[in-house]
Amino acid sequence: ERSMAILNTFIRFIQVSMPRSDVIILTDPKSKLSINQGKASILPIEGNYSRGNLMLQRIKSYIAFLELKLEEVDCVNCARHFVFTDSDMAVVEDLGHIFTSYPNWHLALTFRNNKGQPLNSGFIAVRGARDGISNS
Ligand SMILES: *[C@@H]1O[C@H](CO)[C@@H](O)[C@H](O)[C@H]1NC(C)=O
């Protein structure tokens, strides 16, 4: 119940900061999520969600999601970008400007000073053009 409250708050923050965005919750098909926020949807993705595999599974789920979206991108000027985040963060400003202010990248990552986990997968942005998606 508590984590559902956190998830709903997370969704609410996005909907206030970026009202034109869609919120898609990628999840284990076995989990029983009930979200009560209008525009958010749930996308179950098969995988190994055991504790020891969670970091890897998260990246695999992102890739599976992008592969689905790659099939949908068929217009040249589609500007539908993707931001993958953990649900324990609050989005307090429209992130759209990172795609327009800095046009020359496909994938944005946060590095951290940790040999075991050099990437912080809590925030990953993918440019929603065909090149951006397939290169990511
Ligand atoms: C899932 O991942 C864990 C941790 O890597 C591993 O021990 C387990 O065998 C995996 N389960 C399946 C069904 O692949």
From TrEMBL:
<protein>
    <recommendedName>
        <fullName>Nucleotide-diphospho-sugar transferase domain-containing protein</fullName>
    </recommendedName>
</protein>
